[in-house]
Design brief:
Blueprint (H helix, E strand, L loop, with lengths): L1 H8 L12 E6 L2 E7 L8 H8 L10 E4 L13 H7 L4 E4 L11 H8 L3 E4 L3 H7 L1 H9 L3 E8 L4 E3 L15 H13 L2 E5 H7 L14 E5 L18 E5 L12 E5 L6 H10 L4 E4 L3 H9 L5 E6 L8 E2 L9 E5 L2 E7 L2
Parallel strand pairs: 3-4, 4-5, 6-12, 6-13, 8-9, 8-12, 9-10, 10-11
Antiparallel strand pairs: 1-2, 1-3, 7-14, 13-16, 15-16
Length: 341
């Protein structure tokens, strides 16, 4: 199962909205097959592992280890349990149940009905942690939310600026900047508020790391962000939440406009994102947006860089009343990670 979890890691960032699953098949305690989830629309881990077994005659006397309950429904691919039953695999060891309503115990039920010896719960905590985005999405009906910011040693996220002609404060090292772009590639979406869009004119892409660009989410109640801003360029899809529609220049075809009663109603916004199968989101806006999610208890993880820079005056970072779970160094900066478990 440890090996299956290692394999599952390889699919993270490319398989959503599917979970990233690892699968190992053994015969007489020797590994004869391995697989993990292909990019969305491709084979699931169990299928890839079974197909990798050179001598298929060994399967009826083999054990299949998988990090998540095999699916029992037709999606873009047939149910994995059908293939496991068809191959007459003797024993299946599963880390945890699949929270998706069309599976959630039905895969195990189908295996048991076929006479297969099923064991559940091996390394369950580790398996749930690996797919925490998937579990949060299905159990809380919203994306997994990561707040990310960088602050100076004396607690400021930026200098005080009147407009975008004044450059933003460079806080973190290049190593930290590259890591942030890697994080962007790992999540389905990235969100900022209107003030960040106006002051920083960000592109919110993965320019410093090879990977897919996340969907850009902008909260702009009165549509004040100019249509020629970087967030509306053709490099990635953008979803714009506003409070009323009005003509304000030409909108790019990649921009989806969603009208809501209030962009401050975060739960309604998250429901809209859930309905669009957006499973995870990193929030890079300013302290007001971070505070809104934090105070509403709508964040699952916080990643906070602290640099060695001091500026003595500026825009204050939000204050946290919890202790970090992890602390590490990235270049010259400290990275504190907080988890809501």
């Amino acid at each position: 199962m440890l090996r299956a979890l290692e394999l599952a890691q390889l699919g993270l960032g490319s398989v959503a909205p599917n979970p990233s699953v690892g699968c190992v098949i053994t015969y007489k305690n020797e590994i004869i097959g391995e697989g993990y989830t292909s990019p969305h629309g491709g084979n699931h881990a169990e299928v890839n592992a079974i197909n990798s077994v050179e001598d298929q005659s060994l399967l009826p006397n083999s054990t299949l280890y998988v990090t998540l309950e095999p699916c029992a429904h037709f999606g873009k691919t047939p149910p994995c349990v059908n293939l496991v039953v068809e191959k007459k695999i003797k024993r299946v060891v599963i880390a945890c149940l699949d929270p998706f309503a069309q599976v959630n115990g039905l895969g195990i039920k189908r295996l048991i009905e076929a006479g297969i010896d099923v064991r559940l719960g091996m390394l369950e905590t580790e398996a749930r942690e690996l797919n925490r985005r998937f579990f949060t999405f299905h159990q809380k009906k919203r994306p997994y939310i990561i707040l990310k910011w960088a602050e100076t040693a004396d607690g400021f996220v930026d200098s005080i600026r009147a407009n975008s002609t004044e450059p933003s404060l460079k806080i973190t090292s290049e190593a930290a900047n590259i890591l942030v772009h890697k994080w962007r590639a790992e999540e389905a979406a990235i969100m900022v508020g209107k003030n960040t869009a106006l002051l920083d004119n960000p592109s919110l892409t993965t320019r410093k790391y090879e990977g897919k660009n996340p969907i850009r989410i902008l909260l702009d109640g009165k549509l004040e962000t100019p249509s020629d801003s970087n967030i509306f360029n053709n490099e990635a899809e953008t979803i714009l939440f506003c409070e009323r529609e009005k003509e304000k220049g030409e909108r790019k075809k990649e921009t989806e406009l969603i009208e809501v009663k209030s962009v401050r109603d975060l739960k309604s916004t998250l429901t809209e994102l859930y309905n669009r199968d957006i499973q995870s989101m990193i929030i890079e806006g300013g302290p007001s947006l971070h505070a809104s999610f934090y105070e509403a208890e709508l964040c699952d993880e916080i990643r906070r860089f602290i640099s060695q820079t001091t500026i003595k005056n500026g825009v204050k970072a939000i204050e946290l009343n919890v202790s970090p779970e992890f602390e590490t160094n990235v270049g010259n900066d400290r990275l504190l990670t907080y988890r809501n478990r």
